[in-house]
Design a protein that fits this description.
The structure holds two protein chains of two kinds.
Chain A lengths: L3 H6 L1 H19 L3 H22 L5 E3 L3 E3 L1 H26 L7 H16 L6 H19 L8 H30 L4 H10 L5 H18 L7 H8 L2 H26 L5 H22 L5 H22 L2 H28 L17 H4 L1 H14 L6 H15 L3 H26 L14 H19 L2 H11 L3
Antiparallel strand pairs in A: 1-2
Chain B lengths: L1 H19 L4 H21 L12 E10 L4 E8 H20 L8 H20 L3 H10 L1 H11 L4 H34 L6 H4 L6 H18 L8 H8 L2 H26 L1 H27 L4 H22 L2 H32 L10 H4 L1 H15 L5 H16 L1 H26 L17 H19 L2 H17 L4 H9 L2
Antiparallel strand pairs in B: 1-2
Helix pairs in contact in B: 1-2, 1-4, 2-3, 2-4, 3-4, 3-11, 3-14, 3-20, 4-5, 4-6, 4-11, 5-7, 6-7, 7-9, 7-10, 9-11, 9-12, 10-11, 10-13, 11-12, 11-13, 11-14, 11-20, 12-13, 12-18, 13-14, 13-17, 13-18, 14-16, 14-17, 14-19, 14-20, 16-18, 16-19, 17-18, 17-19
The chains are: A mainly alpha, B mainly alpha.
Chain lengths: 480, 504
């Protein structure tokens, strides 16, 4: 039975569902790229606004499947905001391609966002799994979205097979836990864990399989193999979506699962997670060294960043949760900016995006604004001031040191130093003189630049004066 | 409030200089000069009337909450030590603008922006007394410096810039871990989360923890100093950087390492630092001798000066870990004198390269005939660098040796050997470049000597080094209260000190 408060708190997600249907009908009535894109963008902005109004109603449970509280709203806000930015960049990207069917793209984008947006609220395996599946299946369509690009089909197929395997793991893990404790609710699993046998084998295997599935979705080492190919093959805005929206959603739900079901108590699981974190930080950064393709480079770097996030996850206290929240926000702003710039430089009709490092030679001369923007984004990824990435990394190291996670912190430091090397390779390329005319768009559309400018303002303001963001995070997730 | 201005003026000035390029490149240059002069005036206004009776240690301070949730505040404090180093920073930045007038012709606006932002970062490092703020500036100054080397450097600039970046950033992150560990230990002890340096002073911890944390700070500062074995980034970075970059690196950035040792390592971890002193002093002596030896073996004039820096900075490390009034006075004078003399030598090498398009001393010789002014200045600063009495470097090195003699005779004897080696490589530089047979190379005719801006700059530097050598007392008065406060916080139990003193 839904109360008025629950209805109000859940309004942004109801609205998102309605928006999806509206856009679908709109396409059925009239095929118009601009109209579809515009209604998507306006609809998503509306969802973001409604989200702010549902905050006073929280925390409130909505059916046994969801809870709308500060944490949920914070991550849902990140998901919706990121999806909005991806939608704007997508319009800039698709507008220049003469391709006929562009409208369904926005439909898929909205269903993927719907799947992602319900994950932060999930407190039950049912909603957890449904959210992840809606997200993954829509992404499959987006990644392979009909286009003459090389590797799109390959990327799509790879994602289909591996994502399907990951879902199978996830489902099997859930089934094992259900078989053992007889409930799918996170809270009751947590209660059972306290009363039951802590070293129960079924449960342990179940959690391990869930983590395997989630590891695929988050592209943590050793489940990362699909990441670079999919990032390279997908259109740049979709890559941004995969790298940001899906990662935030999945990370938030697994964070909630661990916080509620308190599986942190298990030592072997912790050791396993520490190993995964260290492998991701070192592996992601080391493999990124070998790349000459900016999208692949960012793919490996995102693997490393998810490893950094695990340090905050492992800290598993208030400081750790806040560090994860800030870092995910910083990661979202930075990664959207970086892929956004790649998208703005690409000409979709040419068969591939502007993703070779060679394409970035002399960018400071031809596109000073985009080059300066990319410089700040890369500095943020490397964790240098005055950007959000610096504060985020500081936060994570603080959480790690406070929880005495010695080896993960060492790996974080080593990984950051390695990261600096390959980020600076791109910086150097942008400063080099042009040898031959590279494949890239002559002038990016103005509103695309405006989005990048907004992200840059956010990046630097919250990097120099993070107190407001930290205050929000403290209220939202500090007591999680 | 004036401290905030001190920071904001160059930061905003950098942005202005960048934008002004659109009008005319010279606008960027003039804006930079104006901004730095203004900042220099602000800093000069902070000089307190120095007498032997002393004055309060903290001259000015500024404190606002910054990230209150984490106990981080925007806390700037200035004592004599910071002031003297800030004056050096601003003077050398101003000089860097002047001497880049003809050398930098591409992307002039961005160049000056980076130069001013480096200055901002360095001033911030010298002012910040909140550990997080300090780390913020510590990292911030790297980025524009990296761009200065990577974009305007010489042949091998990308390699050098990345090496510089990786070394300093890696060691910086180790320091971050140490800072956080210190803060959390303090929090567990007092229940109060703060990054305030003055609150963290005297945090109780067991000696093993103190040792590791001290080492975390030590590594970061010693990489920057640099001391053997963390010095390998320096010759590359110095050699490949544009002249202004080398001047700032040698004159200012290296001093941040020395400042960190003085301000943080010993006062925060007095016992651990005293126990560690023999190791640090061994590294110092190795640095002095090894740097001098390598300087002696160089053909590239800029590399020679770079290696001589390692040798000179070894004296600073020695003085810091001797940790008595004489040695610390010497450290301050040595920092200033090294900044001025090495800066001057880099300027001269830069000017020479602009004229004969090489830094290789095998292709030089007899330059005195065609470039009398440049050569004369070259000889003067080479001699200053070898520590001739009456010049600043002599005072610095002499005081350091005098101070360290009280602590350890053996280290002092070996370190003094560095003075002999310095004489050898400095005179070799003069001999190979300016004296001897005139090398008949094409395009070597019609060389023009130093022009007026360079002459003015060199004269100012020469006068300051003579002033520092003849009458260093005003500087010593200025820094005395700050240093005595540091010594007070860094005073370990006397038993430990005595034990350190007895060791060879």
């Amino acid at each position: 039975m839904m109360t008025a408060a629950a209805f109000r708190a859940f309004a942004p997600f109801t609205l998102l569902g309605a928006l999806t249907i509206v856009v679908m009908l709109l396409i059925a009535v009239r095929r118009d790229h601009r109209l579809t894109a515009l209604s998507t963008i306006i609809g998503l902005s509306l969802c973001c606004v409604v989200l702010l109004f549902s905050a006073p109603a929280s925390p409130v449970p909505v059916t046994p499947l969801f809870i709308v509280d500060g944490t949920a709203l914070f991550y849902a806000g990140l998901v919706l905001g990121s999806a909005l930015i991806v939608a704007i960049i997508s319009y800039a990207y698709l507008a220049s391609s003469g391709h006929a069917a562009r409208e369904e793209y926005y439909l898929l984008l909205l269903t993927a966002t719907l799947g992602a947006a319900v994950l932060p609220e999930s407190i039950d395996f049912t909603s957890f799994f449904l959210g992840i599946e809606v997200l993954s299946i829509s992404l499959l369509g987006l990644i392979a979205y009909a286009s003459p690009r090389q590797g799109a089909a390959e990327a799509g197929t790879k994602y289909l097979v591996l994502s399907g395997a990951a879902s199978a793991f996830l489902l099997f893990g859930m089934a094992l836990i259900y078989a053992e404790v007889g409930t799918m609710s996170f809270v009751r699993i947590g209660v059972e864990a306290h009363t039951g046998d802590p070293a129960d084998l079924y449960r342990l295997v179940g959690v391990a399989m869930i983590l395997t599935g989630v590891g695929f979705k988050l592209s943590l080492v050793p489940f990362h193999m699909w990441t670079p190919d999919v990032y390279e093959g997908a259109p740049a805005p979709v890559t941004a979506f995969v790298a940001v929206v899906s990662k935030i959603a999945v990370f938030s739900v697994i964070l909630r699962y661990f916080n509620l079901a308190e599986s942190h108590a298990d030592t072997s699981l912790r050791l396993g997670l520490e190993a995964v974190a260290i492998l991701s930080m070192l592996g992601g950064n080391l493999l990124a060294l070998l790349q000459n393709n900016v999208k692949r480079l960012l793919a490996y770097s995102s693997i490393a960043h998810l490893g950094y996030l695990l340090v905050g996850f492992l800290a598993a206290d208030s400081l750790g949760n806040m560090a994860v929240a800030y870092y995910l926000a910083a990661y979202a702003v930075t990664t959207l900016g970086a892929f956004g710039i790649v998208a703005l430089l690409s000409v979709p009709g040419t068969g591939r995006d502007a993703d070779q490092i060679e394409n970035y030679r002399g960018l400071f001369r031809t596109h000073p604004f985009l080059a300066g923007g990319l410089t700040l984004m890369l500095l943020s990824l490397a964790g240098m001031p005055p950007t959000m990435g610096f504060i985020g990394k500081f936060y994570l190291v603080a959480a790690g040191v406070d929880s005495r996670l010695f080896w993960p912190v060492v790996a974080l430091v080593v990984g950051s130093v390695i990261g600096l090397y390959y980020y600076s390779r791109v910086l150097v390329a942008m400063a080099m003189p042009i040898e031959h005319v590279p494949v890239r768009r002559a002038a990016a559309p103005l509103f695309g630049k405006a989005v990048i400018a907004a992200l840059l303002v956010l990046l630097v303001t919250l990097g120099v004066y993070p107190a407001p963001a930290i205050a929000v995070i403290r209220v939202a997730v500090g007591h999680g | 409030m004036i401290l905030l201005w001190l920071l904001c003026v160059p930061a905003v000035g950098g942005a202005l200089a960048w934008l002004a390029e659109a009008a005319h490149p010279n606008w960027s240059r003039w804006i930079s000069i104006g901004v730095l002069s203004l900042d220099l005036l602000l800093a000069l206004a902070l000089i307190s009337p120095a007498t032997s009776s002393g004055h309060p240690a903290w001259i000015a301070s500024f404190d606002r909450p910054w990230i209150p949730q984490l106990g981080i505040s925007f806390e700037l404090d200035l004592d004599g030590l910071s002031l003297v180093l800030i004056l050096l920073t601003l003077a050398l930045s101003l000089i860097s603008v002047v001497i880049s007038w003809t050398e930098i012709t591409e992307r002039v606006g961005l160049f000056h922006a980076n130069l001013l932002w480096t200055t901002t970062g360095v001033i911030g490092v010298f002012l910040a007394l909140d550990m997080f703020l300090f780390f913020f500036f510590w990292e911030l100054m790297l980025v524009p410096m990296y761009f200065l080397i990577a974009l305007w450097g010489h042949e091998n600039r990308f390699y050098a810039a990345i090496k510089f970046f990786l070394f300093t950033q890696g060691s910086g992150l180790i320091m971050l871990v140490a800072i956080l560990a210190l803060v959390f230990i303090h929090q567990h002890a007092t229940g109060h989360l703060t990054f305030d340096y003055l609150a963290l002073l005297g945090t109780k911890m067991n000696s093993m923890t103190a040792f590791w944390l001290m080492l975390g700070f030590f590594v970061a500062f010693v990489v920057k100093l640099p001391a053997v074995p963390f010095h390998t980034w320096l010759p590359d970075a110095h050699t490949e950087a544009p002249t202004a970059g080398s001047v700032l690196l040698a004159g200012v950035l290296l001093k941040t390492g020395a400042y960190g040792l003085l301000r943080f390592v010993v006062p925060l971890f007095p016992d651990a630092a005293h126990a560690f002193a023999p190791v640090a002093m061994t590294l110092a002596v190795i640095g002095i001798l090894y740097g001098a030896l390598l300087a002696f073996g160089q053909n590239d004039m800029k590399r020679l000066v770079a290696y001589s820096s390692i040798s000179h900075m070894g004296f600073i490390l020695l003085g810091v870990f001797a940790w008595n009034t004489l040695a610390l006075d010497g450290v301050v004078v040595q920092m200033l004198a090294h900044g001025v003399s090495t800066g001057a030598l880099f300027i001269l090498v830069g000017a020479l390269q602009e004229r004969i398009h090489t830094r290789d001393m095998r292709f030089m010789g007899g330059l005195w005939a065609s470039l009398p002014r440049l050569s004369a200045f070259g000889m003067f600063f080479a001699i200053a660098s070898l520590g001739l009495p009456g010049l600043g470097n002599f005072i610095g090195e002499f005081l350091i040796l005098l101070g360290s003699f009280h602590v350890s005779v053996a280290f002092t004897v070996f370190a003094a050997g560095g003075l002999v080696a310095a004489a050898a490589y400095s005179l070799l530089l003069v001999q190979r470049a300016f004296h001897g047979r005139i090398e008949p190379f094409p395009g070597r005719t019609g060389l023009f000597d130093l022009t007026t801006p360079h002459l003015v700059v060199m004269t100012v530097l020469m006068l300051s080094i003579v002033g520092l050598g003849v009458y260093p007392q005003p500087v010593l008065y200025q820094v005395a209260p700050g240093l005595s406060l540091l010594q007070h916080s860094g005073q370990a139990s006397t038993g430990l000190r005595a034990r350190v003193a007895e060791q060879p």
